TrEMBL record:
This is Inosine-uridine preferring nucleoside hydrolase. It comes from Channa argus. Gene3D superfamilies: Ribonucleoside hydrolase-like (3.90.245.10). It holds the Pfam family IU_nuc_hydro. Keywords: Hydrolase. The lineage of its organism: Eukaryota, Metazoa, Chordata, Craniata, Vertebrata.
Length: 317
């Protein structure tokens, strides 16, 4: 049994990632911690509960995390995921925030990991604020994790939010810096350029969304806006290659739950630029070992895309 904590800022790809986790056999989600990001925190909380409701898994505890970055100005990705983070489609049946746990996210992460030492894989697919706070509260927290999977950062200075900055890292660069510096557990990173190279053909998206289930109908509704955006001319400046739907967060999640998914990876020490006028929030890869870091991260370079598609298909069944 793989035990997971998911740290999310639930937009469309977070929703897809949560649904893949729920559909994967032998995976147990011990908690979902929410962070500001794609949309303001209250929307993230509501969206997360909406996804769990569609999957009939409101028994999974959801925790309120940080509503703003450590130092940076708050930024959201409303133009892509919609103002509400899930494509701006009305949902009168959305669960209320009274379902949230009382414990705050960073504390909950620490508690869960203390109860399951060395057994929990943390999948972080939002700005890394909650993780940075958790390690401030308990510096030994990372050493008690089994592994950390991150969606964020970039390898070739290609940005999707600033010229050189990927959204999750650039939204809270200080948090990303702290996490890459102090999380010395095995760390796997699904970067922006990698996810662009692994994007899903539109023909697959049609197949994925046209399944005759309640989950597929929900996904079709919430992803309509971002799929349209992904086909716009503006968006072509962001992606590094080719057409298709880039389910960023799901790559990190799928790699965390399926050990056979990653086919090529590279081990290198990483950090984040905090001061550059154009490069603040950019991930820095220290191939020259100038940083003298003992801990290196695994940069995901390639995955088995057919396995990945199958996991997505199964998640809406
Ligand atoms: Ca996300």
């Amino acid at each position: 049994m793989k035990k997971l904590i998911l740290d999310v800022d639930t937009g469309v790809d977070d929703a897809q990632a949560i649904m893949v986790a729920l559909a994967t056999p032998d995976v147990e989600i011990l908690g979902i911690t929410c962070c500001h990001g794609n949309t303001p925190l209250d929307n993230v909380l509501k969206n997360t509960l909406r996804v769990l409701k569609v999957c009939k898994r409101l028994d999974i505890p959801v925790y309120r995390g940080c509503s703003m970055p450590i130092l940076a100005q708050t930024k959201n990705a409303g133009d892509y995921h919609g103002k509400d983070g899930l494509g701006d489609v009305p949902d009168p049946g959305a669960p209320g925030l009274e379902l949230l746990q009382k414990t705050k996210a960073a504390r909950a992460m620490i508690n869960i990991v203390n109860e399951n030492p060395k057994q929990v894989t943390l999948v972080a697919v939002a700005p890394l604020t909650n993780l940075a706070v958790a390690v401030q509260l308990d510096p030994s927290f990372p050493s008690k994790l089994n592994a950390l999977y991150i969606m964020g950062g970039n390898t070739e200075s290609r940005g999707n939010t600033t010229s050189c900055g990927e959204f999750n890292f650039v939204t809270d660069p200080e948090a990303a810096y702290i996490v890459l510096d102090r999380y010395t557990c095995p760390t796997y990173i699904a970067t922006w350029e990698f996810s662009c190279r692994s994007s899903l053909p539109w023909s697959f998206c049609d197949q994925y969304l046209s399944q005759k289930t309640e989950k597929a109908a929900f996904m079709k509704k919430i992803s309509a806006l971002s799929m349209k955006k992904a086909q716009s001319a503006d968006y072509q400046n962001e992606v590094t290659e080719g057409q298709g739907f880039n389910s960023c967060d799901t790559y990190a999640l799928a790699a965390a739950v399926n050990d056979a998914l990653i086919t090529v990876k590279e081990e290198v020490a990483v950090t984040v630029e905090l001061n550059g006028a154009h490069t603040r929030g950019m991930m820095v890869l220290d191939y020259m070992e100038q940083l003298k870091k003992k801990h290196k991260a695994f940069i995901i370079k390639k995955i088995d895309l057919e396995k990945f598609k199958q996991m997505l298909m199964n998640s809406l069944k």
